[in-house]
């Protein structure tokens, strides 16, 4: 499905500020894998997302989707396989446009955009149906400007927009971190439902250790641009937060330092 | 007085096409494009020279449109592919067009007086002229509205609103910027072409200050009519343009103002319109912050009181 082969990425190469963001990452993701990603500040989690989605190109190595190399394709050409939700609730939607217009843009993901109407009656019905699944009443506010929605509502909409054309891969970059706990819980629940229903191959970066263990079928831990731990489903089920932190200290020789970490 | 009002309305309608162009770059794409000053004259120059050479005025105006589309596309390419700052890309194109416009005309100005133009069949009476112009402008406005509701139009609007988001949905924002700036300057050039046919001549300096006049129209329109939907926003731009011309007509009647003060007045209108909302917002924010911190400090004070 998604393969990373010897992927490396440096920031400011050859200068005093040189920083290893990713070093020789080798990973294989099977269809339907739901992988949670944890690690300290600057471990390379966001860079990993950016290299897969095409925001950045790797310095060396290959990114393959269903066998074909895509590491040189720009982000807008990879979007037909990859849906993404950002941490910032403002990042995934266009605030001055209406809910239905935002959905219409998500609907044309990866297709050529021409002179067809963005919003039609049949699309509007589809959008309403999809919005109902979120259960927060957005289906009655199709023509409202997205800028008027709360952070939680925008993030729910972003999640729907990222997934409803069934991309093969879903990237979630701490997408609940900026929300209050009850909203974060709602978005987490929606994420679980959508991912399991559409069987999307999912990578989710999170600061919430309990969530990292509870969600998904595989957990990877990163440190200094490397994957230092890859826990399969069987072991993950019996794992506890303190075991996880212990593992990190044992392998990296330091405490898991993250100013936003949530132990669960 | 009445004649000058009629004149203001007809000129406002002609320049509203230019203002719609400015609306596309400044408001939709969030790209301050200064090409306008050059491409306006380019439109005038192309249409005037083609009319003097005996071309049908429709063809001449379409030629102006093509010239504007190309000029805008050049600015867009300089900005997106050449990575030149948007303002500078526009200024560079504007300067280049100044020379190009003289090349097009072969001299600094060209007269089309007494030649058949798009406007000559309707020029009199003034009531008919305004009606014809109004209908024509509204048709163009509706076409623009419709375009902005297509898949491509939505991508264009999202490029100015949240470019990161629309890229993640598979739109090449370089392309949408080039299309938008090109379309904008196409409208500006048609406006320049109509201006030349209305005034009877094209001149290399006819575009000077157009970007500011366009901005003034956009801002006045928004202030009065709002911009809730695309339909309202573009209508507001047209009325803003007419209103701006009427204000100018009145300003010119003030005894101690000279016609040459016009650009200063225009600049002042835009400055006030841009600064006022910022000050208002800052004051509102400050007051809200003060109120909230007072509220919070009383809450924490009572909390600590409770613990003791």
From TrEMBL, chain A:
InterPro entries: AAA+_ATPase, ABC_transporter-like_ATP-bd, ABC_transporter-like_CS, ABC_transporter_ATP-bind, P-loop_NTPase. GO terms for molecular function: ATP binding; ATP hydrolysis activity. GO terms for cellular component: plasma membrane. It is found in: Cell membrane. Its main location: membrane. Residues 2-249 form the ABC transporter domain. Keywords: ATP-binding, Cell membrane, Membrane, Nucleotide-binding, Transport. It is a peripheral membrane protein. This is Putative ABC transport system ATP-binding protein. The lineage of its organism: Bacteria, Bacillati, Bacillota, Bacilli, Bacillales.
TrEMBL record, chain B:
One of its GO terms (cellular component) is plasma membrane. InterPro entries: ABC_transp_permease. It comes from the Bacteria. It holds the Pfam family BPD_transp_2. Coiled coil: none annotated. GO terms for molecular function: transmembrane transporter activity. Keywords: Cell membrane, Membrane, Transmembrane, Transmembrane helix. It is found in: Cell membrane. It is a multi-pass membrane protein. The chain crosses the membrane at residues 6-26, 58-79, 86-106, 126-148, 169-194, 206-225, 230-252, 264-283. PANTHER family: ABC TRANSPORTER PERMEASE PROTEIN YPHD-RELATED-RELATED, BRANCHED-CHAIN AMINO ACID TRANSPORT SYSTEM, PERMEASE PROTEIN. This is Putative ABC transport system permease protein. The lineage of its organism: Bacteria, Bacillati, Bacillota, Bacilli, Bacillales.
